[in-house]
Amino acid sequence: MPKIVDHGAYRKHLLAHCFHLFAHHGYEVLTMRQIAEELGVSTGTLYHYFPTKEALFQQLVEDRIQMAINEVTAAVHPEAPLRERLVALCQLIARYEEGFWNHFLIMIDYYQHRDRYGEAAGKILRDEGERYHQTVSALLGFPDPRLSLLFHCQINGLLTARMLHGVSTPFMEQAQLFTDLIMVYLQKHGRGGEELAVSSPQAHRENIE
């Protein structure tokens, strides 16, 4: 009896292993033959699921962003106090920090060689990234859109610095200061009532743990 293959699951399996390849080799360098060799499949099998490298890359980006959105939506409850939402999001980022690093490496490679990605691949990378940021911003519900932008920039900067400099300090310890600064800012401007009160560092660590 022939083996029944779940093509959808197998496609996702291939995409999951491609994420690391694109992050550490770059879009231009990789060929479909090299990708097939790294995945341990024939080029015919790879082309069966992805007709071109551009199509593979587009599906990879869509798949990874949707996974990230699903994780964030499950972890961050929009009706919880803001501090709890911030802590939940930071905990999620800490758990998948290496995945965020890989995403940054792909983005850096794109901005260095955007003319080689093709218009469709570049558009999907930008659009899906924006969809993720909009999801996070909606869940956090900052009253000022500038604060939402500042939060994304700070977290991205922190992750990038940790990747480049090999920082060993736990991510949550570094994120704590910025979380507290946000709460102080909102408290100062009278946004959110009691939930905006800043706890002591010890209480914050207990909340994280």
Summarize the structure.
The protein has 209 residues and is mostly helical.
Q: Explain this structure to me?
A:
This protein has 209 residues and is mostly helical. It has one domain. Helix content is 77%, strand content 0%. The protein is built from eleven helices and no strands. The chain has helices spanning 7-25, 32-39, 43-49, 53-75, 82-95, 97-112, 114-117, 119-140, 145-165, 171-188, 201-208. Helix 9 (145-165) runs antiparallel to helix 10. The longest helix has 23 residues, at 53-75. The radius of gyration is 20 Å and the shape is elongated. The N and C termini lie far apart (51 Å). 20% of the residues are buried. The model is unreliable at 193-209 (pLDDT under 50).
Question: How would the blueprint of this fold be written?
Answer:
Elements: H1 7-25, H2 32-39, H3 43-49, H4 53-75, H5 82-95, H6 97-112, H7 114-117, H8 119-140, H9 145-165, H10 171-188, H11 201-208
Helix pairs in contact: 1-4, 1-6, 2-3, 4-8, 5-10, 9-10
Count of helical stretches: 11
Q: Biggest sheet, open or closed, and with what strands and sense?
A: none
| Helix proportion | over 70%
As a whole number of angstroms, the C-alpha radius of gyration is 20 Å
The tally of domains stands at 1
**What fraction of the residues are assigned to beta strands by DSSP?**
under 5%
Extract low-pLDDT stretches.
Answer: 193-209
Cα shape: elongated
By helix and strand content, what is the structural category?
A: mainly alpha
Report the strand count: 0
Provide mean pLDDT, rounded. 84
The ordered H/E elements are: HHHHHHHHHHH
Q: Give the CA-CA distance, first to last residue.
A: 51 Å
